[in-house]
UniProtKB/TrEMBL annotation:
CDD domains recorded: Radical_SAM (cd01335), radical_SAM_B12_BD (cd02068)
Leader peptide range in chain numbering: none
Name under which the protein is recorded: Anaerobic magnesium-protoporphyrin IX monomethyl ester cyclase
Organism field: Rhodobium gokarnense
InterPro entries: BchE-like, Cobalamin-bd, Elp3/MiaA/NifB-like_rSAM, Methyltransferase_Class_B, rSAM, rSAM_horseshoe, rSAM_sf
Segments forming domain B12-binding: 9-143
EC number(s) per entry: 4.-.-.-
Cofactor field: [4Fe-4S] cluster
Metal-binding is among the record's keywords: yes
Length: 559
């Protein structure tokens, strides 16, 4: 049985300016499939190789797979659906499968606008993809597809979702196959070295209103630090990787495990051969002040901080638990430990003004991080904040939901002015850094790293790729009137997806009303009910997981 995994060709001028990133999802799925005996496995990285539809069609036609799989984040969803359409034409007998965070939550939208897709994998894919492959191999697809947990599909005009699959409890049992990637292609621009994105934990205990990761992974689970370092050592020894970024939303949540991870890196003398970066919260940096020098010794050189907003109003809106002044303190502590800092600002909400954008620049200047990034607020269509915004969301062209295109229109300015002022912040911040900081601060590694970051920014700027500036026709303040974000106004929310959202809102409303009635009668408690916290599919998964745990405990007791 032949399986082909495809990474869709989507470019936005955002994260890719810092490097060409290895698609870790393909390695994780490939590892599970090969462990299950599926060795006739191929991977096409259409994004890194900039493969168009015609060339992709030739490749799929030659391979003639039995199963074609593609991933999808929100901005790449149309490119992913396009891969499936090419597969329909060139290898019509293959089962066409899509997964990823967007398809997981928006499966009714996806199956409505791309009916040529056979199946959506919802949630973590390592176990589900094997069950799907088994069903195809054994001739049980599609007759017994309703028995596979965690998928959705069309049955005539009806869109059906099976109960959510339980989350993967033993992450250490997952063995990614990194050899499926052509590592010479994946380069981290600031250091001109190969880069990897391994995973130490999945999930997040925090519920920021603009985020979806805590919904996608559900349970917070962390791997054995030694197993993670085994994987990193393999990447160094066998694939010549010189830099990695932990894929975790917040790898420092479990400080005990994070410290053990650092200790293991040091024990194997790996910091001399590989450096690394993380994304984390300001609160964790403040908490770990006494450990920061130790983290640096373990090879941690870059920390991207979710400072998010200059105005406390925005921090509160995002359900952040930090204060504005905490951000400056965290950056100072990291600088003292000789760790490069990147401050992340979210801009472009409806209450954004010229004054608040200037405030972010002044704070970036005052805090003095090594790098700063102004990301356009992107309301994921499956986040709670998206629904709270209601009719203020006017753009449903998901290909533009990429952190660089202003999806929201602030009340006080149009989108072109918003882009122009953000570019003004970038220009001022990095011109100042280029002239007065990067060439003169530190020697050796520090200087090389910062100049490498500057080179990556300048390269993307000259090529007009940064923030997709060339495509939207932005050339500076004088070009504001000619800016065209090229929104596809024909895009909208499918009726099936609208109905699904309405049904979910009704369930939550009924559960809240029931709870309030109980409290009015003197009953109830202070905890939200499961019906308020989880979707119907998530409830089914929780019940299935509880039943499995009970069965496992019974089996142990019997032994």
């Amino acid at each position: 049985m032949r399986i082909v995994l495809v990474h869709p060709n989507y470019q936005s001028g955002g994260a890719e300016i810092a490097g060409r990133w290895p698609p870790a999802w393909a390695a994780y799925l490939a590892g599970s499939l090969k462990k299950a005996g599926y060795t006739d496995l191929h991977f096409i990285d259409a994004m890194t190789d900039n493969i168009g539809e015609e060339e992709l069609g030739r490749m799929l036609e030659e391979l003639q797979p039995d199963l074609v799989g593609v991933t999808s984040i929100t901005p790449s969803i149309y490119a992913a659906e396009g891969v499936m359409e090419v597969a329909l034409r060139k290898c019509p007998n293959a089962v066409r499968c899509i997964g990823g965070v967007h398809a997981t939550f928006m499966f009714k939208q996806v199956l409505s606008e791309a009916p040529w897709i056979d199946v959506v994998v919802r949630g973590e894919g390592e176990e589900i993809i094997v069950e799907l492959a088994d069903a195809i191999r054994d001739g049980r697809w599609p007759a017994e597809r309703d028995k596979i947990l965690g998928i959705a599909y069309r049955d005539g005009e009806t869109i059906t979702a099976t109960a959510a699959a339980p989350t993967i409890k033993d992450l250490d049992a997952i063995e990614p196959d990194w050899s499926i990637l052509e590592w010479e292609k994946y380069i981290y621009e600031p250091l001109n070295t190969r880069v990897a994105i391994p995973n130490m934990a999945r999930g997040c205990p925090f519920t920021c209103s603009f985020c979806s990761q805590w919904k996608f992974w559900r349970d917070y689970r962390i791997r054995d630090p030694k197993k993670v370092v085994d994987e990193i050592e393999n990447l160094v020894n066998n694939h010549k990787v010189g830099f990695f970024i932990l894929a975790d939303e917040e790898p420092t949540i479990n400080r005990k495990k994070f410290i053990a991870f650092c200790e293991e890196l040091i024990a194997r003398d790996l910091p001399k051969r590989i450096q690394w970066g993380i994304n984390t919260r300001v609160t964790d940096i403040l908490r770990d002040e006494e450990y920061l020098a130790f983290y640096r010794k373990a090879g941690l050189v870059h920390v991207s901080l979710g400072t998010e907003a200059a105005a406390q109003l925005k921090l509160d809106l995002f359900h952040k638990e930090t204060k504005v002044e905490d951000n400056k303190r965290a950056i100072e502590l990291l600088r003292k430990a000789d760790i490069f800092t990147e401050a992340q600002f979210i801009v472009g909400l409806e209450n954004e003004t010229a004054e608040t954008l200037e405030e972010t620049y002044q704070m970036a200047k005052d805090w003095d991080p090594d790098l700063a990034n102004w990301s356009m607020y992107t309301p994921w269509p499956f986040s709670s904040l998206f629904h709270e915004l209601g009719d203020k969301v006017e753009v449903f062209d998901f290909s533009k939901y990429n952190f660089v295109t202003p999806i929201m229109k602030p009340a006080a300015m149009d989108r072109a002015e918003l882009l122009d002022r953000v570019m003004s912040n970038y220009r001022r911040f990095y011109i100042r850094k280029a002239l007065f900081h990067y060439p003169w601060r530190g020697i050796g590694y520090r200087r090389r790293y910062l100049l490498g970051c500057l080179k990556a920014f300048l390269k993307a700027g000259f090529q007009r790729k940064f923030y997709d500036l060339g495509r939207v026709n932005y050339w500076g303040p004088q070009s504001k009137k000619g800016v065209d974000f090229q929104f596809d106004q024909t895009r909208g929310i499918a009726q099936a997806q609208e109905e699904d959202w309405e049904a979910a809102a009704d369930r939550a409303a009924r559960a809240r009303a029931k709870r309030m009635d109980a409290m009015a009668c003197g009953g109830g408690d202070e905890q939200l009910s499961d019906e308020e916290l989880y979707t119907a599919e998530e409830l089914a998964a929780r019940r299935a997981a509880k039943a499995k745990d009970a069965a496992d405990q019974g089996s142990v007791a019997a032994e």
